[in-house]
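ok, trying the design again with the full structure, not the truncated one.
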């Protein structure tokens, strides 16, 4: 277990962000180097080549590991690089069970790339544990869940799935991108590792790509460090520095975005132009009680995230909404300080086959809102006028 002497917000600012010991610089230096002076053959000073390790990346890995209450952090150049690296720990004919409403990039990588290399994947509704039981085979090695899912905000009971996996000698990975370490810490609930697109809430400013895996499993960490070094999908030192800068305000940003999202979801849920509002913080969300229990800030308060999805009932209403909105920018991605809007059916999940979209109830009329930290009055006003009243 990591040292928990400091609270989350303090660790976010201090862990890996310590002042430079040589100069006293409060902002840690960026080590923009590809290679390092060695004192002799096999006598380096802890670093030999930046694909293998870099002081700035090491700081970031310590920081993210601490925030997720892990002992090992492994940083990658993107969230998909992290997810792909996790699956590269598997061998030919190994089997993985994945949440059905998974991010489109994960679905694409699994079905169009890794399946050609001899891995097997099943996509199931992990809200119901019986679906997992039905798909477990002798060659099943991992269960990979997103909770909440993108974009339908379906939740999976992490602790219940972790118990199931332990009984079956299967490892559990949780994509925690939507909640961030501030809103949910899957390792504390029994997961074997946590995966992030640090592009999203961890970065939080829409200016850097990144990914990360955090674990307490020494053997798994060793495999991942080897794949990180061998594959070379590593973030640049500058990207690592940007992410270190960003985690300092992670708690503030996620808290504010979640507060804004709850208020917007309540307004949208009561709006006559909205057919259906999906947000775990609403009492009518079918898994509201699970969200209340599972999604917690480090101080123990329930938190519901910054993503709200709405069904407007028709493609024309969606097009009108997008053309009228000004504070919500039409763009892919999420988790930034600025509010974004997208149509997952045609954007983030464009590569998911239509029959699969139908099977998970992903429709063209669904809009995903990534709520930022702008003033709530401006966000509400923009949504109201975008809806036409």
């Amino acid at each position: 277990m990591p040292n928990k002497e400091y609270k989350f917000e303090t660790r976010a600012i201090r862990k890996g962000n310590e002042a430079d010991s040589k100069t006293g610089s409060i902002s840690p230096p960026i080590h923009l180097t590809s290679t390092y002076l060695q004192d002799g053959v096999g006598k380096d000073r802890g670093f030999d080549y930046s694909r293998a390790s870099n002081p700035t990346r090491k700081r970031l890995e310590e920081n993210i590991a601490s925030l997720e209450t892990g002992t090992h952090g492994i940083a990658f150049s993107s969230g998909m690089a992290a997810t792909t690296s996790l699956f590269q720990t598997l061998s030919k004919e190994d089997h993985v069970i994945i949440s059905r409403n998974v991010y489109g990039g994960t679905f694409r990588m699994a079905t169009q790339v890794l399946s050609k290399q001899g891995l097997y994947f099943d996509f199931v509704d992990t809200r119901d544990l019986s679906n997992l039981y039905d798909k477990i085979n002798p060659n099943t090695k991992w269960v990979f869940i997103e909770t909440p899912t993108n974009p339908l905000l379906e939740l999976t009971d992490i602790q219940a799935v972790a118990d199931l996996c332990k009984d079956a000698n299967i490892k559990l990975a949780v994509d925690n991108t939507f909640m961030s370490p501030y809103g949910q810490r899957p390792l504390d609930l029994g997961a074997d590792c946590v995966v992030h697109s640090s592009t999203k809430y961890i970065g939080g400013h829409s200016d850097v790509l990144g990914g990360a895996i955090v674990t307490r499993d020494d053997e798994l960490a060793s495999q991942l460090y080897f794949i990180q070094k061998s594959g070379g999908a590593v973030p640049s030192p500058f990207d690592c520095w940007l992410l270190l800068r960003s985690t300092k305000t992670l708690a503030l940003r996620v808290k504010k975005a979640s507060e804004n999202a709850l208020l917007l979801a309540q307004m949208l849920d009561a709006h006559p132009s909205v057919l259906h509002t999906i947000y775990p913080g609403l009492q009518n969300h079918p898994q509201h009680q699970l969200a209340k229990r599972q999604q917690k800030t480090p101080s123990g308060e329930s938190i519901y995230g910054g993503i709200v999805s709405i069904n407007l009932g028709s493609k024309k209403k969606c097009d009108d909404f997008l053309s009228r909105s000004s504070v919500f920018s039409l763009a892919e991605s999420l988790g930034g300080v600025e509010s974004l809007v997208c149509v997952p059916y045609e954007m983030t999940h464009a590569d998911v086959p239509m029959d699969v979209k139908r099977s998970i109830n992903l429709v063209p009329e669904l809009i995903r809102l990534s709520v930022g930290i702008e003033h709530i009055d401006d966000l509400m006003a923009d949504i109201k006028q975008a809806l036409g009243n």
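Keeping the full-length input from now on. DSSP finds 14 helices and twelve strands in the chain.
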